[in-house]
Amino acid sequence: MIARHGNKPLTNRSLTIATHYSAASRLAPLLGLIAFVLVWQLLSLRYPPFILPGPGSVAARLIEKLADGSLVIHSAATLSAAIPGLILGTLVAFALGVPIAKSPLADRLISPFIVASQGVPFVVVAPLLFIWFGSGLQAKILVCAMVVFFPIAINVIAGLRSTPPVLRDLFRALGATPSEMFLKLELPSALPFIFAGLRVGGTLSMIGAITGEFLSADRGLGFMINLGNGLYDTALVIAGVLTTVLIALAIYSAIRLAERALRVERWAE
How many CB atoms lie within 10 A of CB 237? Predict the structure, then answer.
């Protein structure tokens, strides 16, 4: 039997090439990581440890912080701001994005303020939040919400506006109410856009949390990085950065898994 790809038969040679390509694509992330570590190790040999410690020194610092439990405590403190901030930013993005997408008047009234807000670096606004709301968890959550809000809101608006007009006319012809049209047509068709925004917002939430901890914190990965910087402990700084990256990747992967579980891709077809 000859396998076929579309209307074209696949020979044994084609199947072999396709199999090798598939295996290489699966191994590409691992190979890239190995190459990165090797280059890092080679560069670290040219500089003193306080400038660029090697992968072994950073790994030893990570193991040390894991063993004494401080890395878990700092990571939990950062996540306690990042996750609520992501949720809050998503809710506000929906609350403003839906009326903007559906009402030209709301678009003209609200959109300029949303766009203007992105012209002000959140690092500048964050100190005001700490003045108004104190230096506790609440201010850090607000910083995270500010960071994740814009990409999610833009994707909510774009997704709701992407609904084909033909389907809108069909729903109206069938007598669908505005709420039925939103829940059964507009929202499902917008899901690919919304999840794209959530993936971006999920990774940005860690930036917001770390920024808040840079300004005021007694725990968290940002605090740990600041502590390492003050002690010229570059290995600790890099360990904190790598932990932040790993958590951001975990948040991204969790959102991606939820997207696949809901089979969001079928709405993009």
Answer: 21
Sequence-ordered list of residues with C-beta below 8 angstroms from that of 73, at least 6 positions apart, any chain: 219
Structural domain contains residue 217: yes
d(CA 121, CA 132): 18
CATH number at residue 203: 1.10.3720.10
Q: Are 253 and 195 in contact (CB under 8 A)?
A: no
Contact 190, 156 (CB under 8 A): yes
> Is 4 a domain residue?
no
What is the full DSSP assignment across 158-179? HHHHTS-HHHHHHHHHTT--HH
pLDDT averages per 10-residue partition of the chain, 269 residues = 49 56 70 88 88 90 91 93 94 93 88 80 76 81 90 92 86 85 87 92 90 83 90 91 93 92 69
